[in-house]
Amino acid sequence: MPGDMLSRSVTVLSENVFPDLYESGILDLQKGLELGHFTSVDLVKAYLARIDEVNLKGAALHAVLETNPNALSQAAKLDDERKSKGSRGPLHGIPLLLKDNIATLHEEGMNTTAGSYALLGSVVPRDAFVAAKLREAGAILLGKANLSEWANYRGKVPNGFSGRGGQTLCPYYPNGDASGSSSGSGVAMAVGLAAGSLGSETDGSIVSPSSKNNVVGIKPTIGLVSRAGVVPISSHQDTAGPMCRSVTDAALLLSVIAGPDPRDTVTLYQPGVLPDYMKALDPNALKGKRLGVPRIFLRDNKAILEAFNASLDTFRALGAEIVDPADFPCAEEMKESQAETLVLKTDFKADVAEYISGLLEVLTGVKNLADLIEFNNTHADLELIPPYHDDQSRFIAAEATEKNDAYYAALAEDFDLGRRRGIDATLQKFKLDAIILPTDGTASKPAAISGYPIISVPLGFQPDNVEILPVPAAPLHTQAPGLPFGIAFIGTAYSEFNLIGFAYAFEQATQVRLKRRAYAEAIPTTQIKDVLSI
Q: Which of 162, 224, 290, 522 is deepest in the core (most CB within 10 A)?
């Protein structure tokens, strides 16, 4: 075939069968793999090229901390397996990113460090449970996403900064705040650096960066997804969860990673047989449902309030009844309570030492929180970088704690405010199916202290004439034209199936994610057609 004819045929093919990697979903990619339009090797090459374009070069988003040196060989094996044995399922040969606090096999060549040089080179005993489940389903673990170091628990440091990974940036405005702590996972999904990702949340760390980067995030009930192999903050509030471009992709990943794990005993108490969350994807899921608005928690942000209030009409059009206001009986107490702070800092001291003790090797010799504080002081040039990134006050406060009567009282207060007099009381009082709030603000706290699920879906964007704050960026703009924000769905324990249905119905009716793209320099240009071997 003459060269120009070959070129034209590839162009036509790309228009018809090659999904746009900026937006394409996992099922679209799987369809292309099944039809033989491209291979998993092609996908890995394309995503690695996209990472190379904008991660450290160009917009320098610092979303990906490191990539898997064996990703291409693993993709080739999965391509061969597809030919010889067939597909394992919808994740067969699909490249995903994991937050850098989720353990992956050391011999594979990637580190698990929570962004800190203190854990660089440490040897984990095995994949985290969630990583093993994804691998078993045929996924390719493409790399580790950057994060707020130690999941934002080292100190008062700008969102998305880690010593190893640098400063993650939101792709919707230069030097924009990507939020955290799963910053890299959110940014990578926003501009298509992988097909899907996992983050982790203690309080807001999945849903907030999902909101700020125009993607979908699911923080599951504590006990639905194992935390084994995930660098901890708090055994009472931590969980891993999916961050993706669509509710469909997030539901798919949740279906794979959920389930009991003997290494995380809280998962052994989850209810019976878990549902297939893909079956929750019903555009009519909101019909006849009652959604409550705890208006006392809303913050005064003009664009967000306008978009949220307008969304109530969307919900009504989709058949839902809105109860507004539906305020928590204990709302003022919850806003004033410091119990969560005490629980987290006490848990962190104990839980991080337990995690480190389970490592097979720690090259830096750290054993506990006191060692981490000293490591940072000794290696301040790597970790405590002035003027914005030199704080470790949370570490220091946590080191001073012990599990005493005040700690156990704080834990009981969290459960009382979050569950009995909080989410559960509000759902029951107003006969609600779910609670809705703007994600930005206080939406994550009730779900965090109760251990209950929360899902964030894109809601809108700051207008082009919004004031840019702060000026100059110090080092991030927290408000700027085009910065996204989301809406949160909150429910009682193990209500993920219903929440996914509500989130999906809203997403399908509004299609907010598609209404604005990242700024031009932050969007990689490489597509599948650019890496095909012809």
A: 162
